Amino acid sequence: MSISPNQPLSETDLDRLEALLDAPIFANEGPLLDELQAMLCAIVSGPTVIMPSDWLPAVLGDSVAYESEAQANEVLGLVMALYNDIATSLAEGEGVSPILYPVAENSEEMDFAAWADAYIYGSQVGGADWYQAAGAHAEDLSDLLEPFFLLNGSLREDADKHQERWLTPAEEKLAAGRAQDALPDLITGIYMFWQALASPVQSQRRGTPKIGRNDLCPCGSGKKYKQCCGSPEKLH
Q1: What 3 state SS string does the chain have?
Q2: 50 contacts: CB under 8 Å, gap ≥ 6
Q3: In principle, which of 88, 94, 111, 123 could form an S-S bond with 103, CB 3.0–4.6 Å?
Q4: Which residues contact 95 (CB under 8 A, 6 or more apart)?
Q5: How far apart, in whole angstroms, are the C-alpha atoms of residue 236 and residue 103?
Q6: In angstroms, what CA-CA distances link 75 with 69, 86, 178?
Q7: If we measure between CA atoms, which residue out of 16, 10, 26, 33 comes closest to residue 111?
Q8: Neighbours of 231 (CB within 10 A)
């Protein structure tokens, strides 16, 4: 059964999409539903509009063996509907609740690493360099993305590679817990970050001296800029 891309997804639709992604047509190389959602969140949020013809092969793979035209239409319709759901939720300020799977069968621990890793992959779809696109605001973007790199293990791998001190197990557990709790707000924050840079008002302000994230906020609150007017929810 096909679905209109503009039709909101029901729980039944999500279950159907989940089953299709796990079907033999993907030969165990397609994304799971959590990974698909994460990639689409990044694709929706980025600095440039990416056409479906570009991101569909990147997220589904370019060699899916559909059994029929009807099945292909069903998969693509459900994926586009999920994309539109995410885009609408972020645009209307409703946010996105991450779909998470357990790290192992019968485990109560959720696999935030897979979600974060898929989001980072999604940020690279289309060839845009997010940090280059952020320009003078690259440091702000780095602050927003750092929890994703913590969750997917990249920060620890980088520290090991350069033989730098890493967090103790207790510190890492605490930092990961905070990143997990903040994930929905970070998804929204990154979306708002790019929306702010795309706005005419923000473009006019790019010629003014850059305020450091740790500088005192110019509004006079006495707080650091990153904790006041420079916080993700106020970057608009």
Answers
A1: CCCCCCCCCCHHHHHHHHHHHCCHHHCCCCCCHHHHHHHHHHHHHCCCCCCHHHHHHHHHCCCCCCCCHHHHHHHHHHHHHHHHHHHHHHHCCCCCCCCCCECCCCCCCECHHHHHHHHHHHHHCCCCCHHHHHHHHHHHHHHHHHHHHHHCCHHHHHHHHCCCCCCCHHHHHHHHHHHHHHHHHHHHHHHHHHHHHHCHHHHHHCCCCCCCCCCECCCCCCCEHHHCCCCHHHCC
A2: 43, 125, 126, 128
A3: 111
A4: 89, 184, 185, 187, 188
A5: 36
A6: 10, 17, 35
A7: 33
A8: 17
Query: What is the rounded average pLDDT of the residues 46-74?
Result: 93
Q: What is the pLDDT of residues 191-224, one digit of tens each?
A: 999 999 987 554 444 333 444 555 555 555 556 5
CA angle, 230 as apex, 91 and 135 as ends, to 5°?
Answer: 80
pTM attached to this predicted model: 0.83
Contacts 24+ apart (CB under 8 A), 160-166: none
Q: Which of left, alpha, beta for 65 (phi over 0: left; psi -120 to 50: alpha)?
A: beta
Distance, CA of 17 to CA of 83 (rounded, Å): 13
- 25-42 burial, b if ≥16 CB within 10 A, otherwise e? bbeeebbbbbbbbbbbbb
Q: 19-58, pLDDT tens digit by residue?
A: 999 999 998 888 999 999 999 999 999 999 999 999 999 9
